[in-house]
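A favour, since you know our structure tokens better than I do. Go ahead and set the record down below.
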Amino acid sequence: MSMTVRRKGFTLVELLVVIGIIALLISVLLPALAAARRQAQAVKCAAALREIGNTILMYSNENKGWAPPTKLNSAYNIDGIDYPAGRAYWMNFLSKYVTKTKVGYGAGVANNSTNANDAVQARNSIFWGCPSWTGYAINSGTNPGDLAVVQTGYGFNCFPEYTPDFPAKNVNLNDNAAYVNNISVITLATPTTPQVGTWYKLNRYTRPSERVMLSDALFWLIQTEAPIDDAGQLYGCRVLSNAGAITQRGATTTDWYRHGKYANKTPDGLYFNAVSGKPSYNVLCADGHVTTSVDRADIWRLQRMRYPG
């Protein structure tokens, strides 16, 4: 007489319990993994900013103390490359100091179909060093790769003359023609042929441990407009686009939420709500150290040297 041996297995209930436990563990672990990924991206971004800080120092040492200009309106030759008028940005002046496997000449050489590798080269550059930055998509007929290659995710500070007393708290760059043309204009000149604008020496960035040089940004320059309206209410961070105005009240080109959580937009779609979201952004100071801020007001303190709110 043979005996049938019954194999022991999982019952349906047991299987469902195991699946439930696995699902619960996944739900618990995923936010932690996402947070760890964001933190890792922030660390990589900070490392890229430190490297860029080193290139600024090397540029200054080789150029009699001059800092790189933020942008030139005139045509300019950099190391044998002829940049058309309005195409030479700060990253182009610094590219020679970066390992060539990390940077091409795409970030501003020719923003048109004559250089089909612009977008690829830009993304391989250390100036596109923040892994949390995806870039602005533009008309693919304007630039190969459908990418605005000069918007690398970092903005340069071209206003080293700001002090705690200047500019006045409610002054915007477009409020006063003399202010714009003579004092705080974007650097658009060369040391030997001055035009409207100033090509600053690096030592003009006074209080370097307290002054921003680059930051996570939505534009190629850092700009902080008056953050409060006439009633004293705080503006939220303005929602910027590649072609959007940046000199309107309440605007900052620094990306407050790069490594945090974006706020909800206001009903008009122009601003992120001033009291929501979780700010977190990296800043390279003029002395070369990098800090991560979780305070929206810090970028005003670091550029205007005070918060005028």
User: Anything to note?
Assistant: The longest strand covers residues 212-216. The chain has one domain: 16-309.
